[in-house]
Description:
This protein has helices at about 5-10, 15-30, 35-45, 50-60, 105-115, 130-135; strands at about 30-35, 65-70, 75-80, 85-90, 95-100, 125. It is of the alpha+beta class. The chain has 2 domains: about 5-80, Winged helix-like DNA-binding domain superfamily/Winged helix DNA-binding domain (Arc Repressor Mutant, subunit A, Orthogonal Bundle); about 85-135, Ferric-uptake regulator, C-terminal dimerisarion domain (Dna Ligase, domain 1). The chain has a 3-stranded antiparallel beta sheet with strand order 1-3-2. A hairpin with a 5-residue loop joins β4 and β5 (about 95-100). α2 crosses α3 (about 35-45). The termini are far apart. One zinc ion binds near residues 31, 85, 87 and 98.
Amino acid sequence: xxxxENILREHNLKATNQRVGILSIxxxxxxxxxxxxxxxxxxxxxxxSLATLYKNMHxxxxxxxxxxxxxxxxxxxxxxxxxxxxxxYCEKCRELVDLDIEFKKLNNEILKDSGFLLNKTNxxxxxxxxxxxxx
Length: 135
Ligand SMILES: [Zn+2]
Ligand SMILES: [Zn+2]
């Protein structure tokens, strides 16, 4: 388990109980929409409002503790920021899965070809996962 208090402080954020609660749900789930997160966080903090949740999420996004995953025709998902990776999105069960990409290698190749310096990735492939293919 991650030390959420330390992670929050490293990102210049106050380690409030609610933020720790949000991060622990996010670590369990991997990728989560704000609606799902809200229904889960309500179990531990019944009085939390959606506006407060948004405020906390916004602060953690701004300080790059969280990243946003935009998915076409689906809800935006959030995850705890980690190394640059891409996502696979299943159009049937709507699950998001991490996909490792060789970001450093890609960065070097692009830098060599065009001088462009990569910063981060926001790449999602969509298709059908193996479970949904029924094989
Ligand atoms: Zn699926
Ligand atoms: Zn991910």
